[in-house]
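seq as requested:
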Amino acid sequence: MQKRPKPKDRAFISDEPVRNACLDGKEGFIIKVRLTSYRALPLSCIEDISLSVDGRSISKDDMTFILNGERHALSDLAKLSHVWWWILDYAELFVASVGGLASGNHEIEGMLVTVEPYITAGRFSFFNSSKKQLAVAEVVS
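struct tokens:
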């Protein structure tokens, strides 16, 4: 019997380990995320992104959305109708946090709220929640 390939996980939060990082001189950590839509969307269709780590809500002001190396404040996404997020591309959420995350496993929970412009029967918001236990990647020297 031929083995079927495992389907791609379409959850907002990827299974990739969390990485401690520094961005523009700020310590923090990075979580990889995916678009949950069935088609590519411009960033202006992202209505909201929320995140909590180990039950603690993260302020939107402490998050930076990174797509294809370009950094965007969450408050700027509504203006970015010319920047497209393709369904096979990962984005990253940088969370400013002094010292990053401690090693070990952490409960990461997130919500991506999108508007699908392809649906013509009105404006509908789609809420896509995701919850994962992720480890912090060990730094290899």
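The longest strand covers residues 105-115.
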